[in-house]
Amino acid sequence: MRAEQLFDVSGRVAIVTGAASGIGLAMSDVLSANGAHVVMADIAKAQLDEAAESFRSEGRRVDARVLDVADLVAVDETIRAVAAQHGRLDTVFANAGITGGPGYTFPNGDMDHVSFELWDRVMQVNLTGAFATLRAAASVMKPRRRGSIVVTSSVAALRASHLPSHAYHASKAAIAQVVRVAALELGPHNVRVNAIAPGPFATGIGNGRLRSPEVAASFAATVPLGRVAQTEEIMGLALLLASDASSFMTGAIIPIDGGTQA
Ligand SMILES: NC(=O)c1ccc[n+]([C@@H]2O[C@H](COP(=O)([O-])OP(=O)(O)OC[C@H]3O[C@@H](n4cnc5c(N)ncnc54)[C@H](O)[C@@H]3O)[C@@H](O)[C@H]2O)c1
């Protein structure tokens, strides 16, 4: 079978949350470039509109929807509306996420400085918001007996590190476990649920700190490949999970981390 057929997503409808920047932007890019209709959802309206417009200017089928995934009612309404509008929903990337500050080796990153307000927001976005996204996607996919849901977790779900915050570790580990349970529950409905577990990617997260050479170097020191990733490097895995090339994959937490897990 040829790659174009194996990884075909043309004509499919996908939603990506956190689509205005970084990993979600790259996911939206690869899906729309390969013929999917992508609904890009993000809290940052200006950045979102700009990104969607740039894809549309290349003739791609892309919509922009302002959405805070911590607004659980809005998440449900948005996903149901997209499915109703298109009469289908094939893939949902629950990707939106925030760091909740730096890890304990950075100034004010130690546990004594953890703000419970920020802790709650991290949980609301990374855990509850991602679960609400997954749940709404599942509810429209189940009757059609088809669909692929992909949650962006993190290597911080798989092992502890001094670099991300306590809340970030907790939220990403918790959502990874939700993904496993959801895969069990949705398997009989032929809806697949997987998580990706990225290592350090140079994105806008944490005010873009991974783009600073010093911070990037501290992350790169933990990576066997010796560098942080560029956002384009998520594209292959995103296309795999959105397409039928991954038809027997569900319940997996897939590292994409330059070897960190080795
Ligand atoms: N960059 C990394 O090193 C790394 C590593 C592992 C996991 N991740 C995860 O990847 C995902 C994407 O992050 P990124 O690195 O591309 O960062 P990013 O900041 O470049 O992109 C995240 C996007 O999510 C949006 N967003 C934030 N809160 C939102 C909310 N409540 N509702 C809707 N959108 C919201 C932001 O506006 C932004 O456009 C996150 O879940 C993050 O935790 C990133």
From TrEMBL:
Which UniProt keywords are given for this protein, alphabetically ordered?
A: Oxidoreductase
| Database matches in CDD domains | SDR_c
List, alphabetically, the InterPro entries matched: NAD(P)-bd_dom_sf (IPR036291), SDR_fam (IPR002347)
GO MF: oxidoreductase activity, acting on NAD(P)H, oxygen as acceptor
Q: Which Gene3D superfamilies match?
A: NAD(P)-binding Rossmann-like Domain
Q: Does the keyword tRNA processing apply?
A: no
What Pfam families has UniProt attached to this entry? Answer: adh_short_C2
Q: Which family does it belong to?
A: Belongs to the short-chain dehydrogenases/reductases (SDR) family.
**The protein's name:** Short-chain dehydrogenase
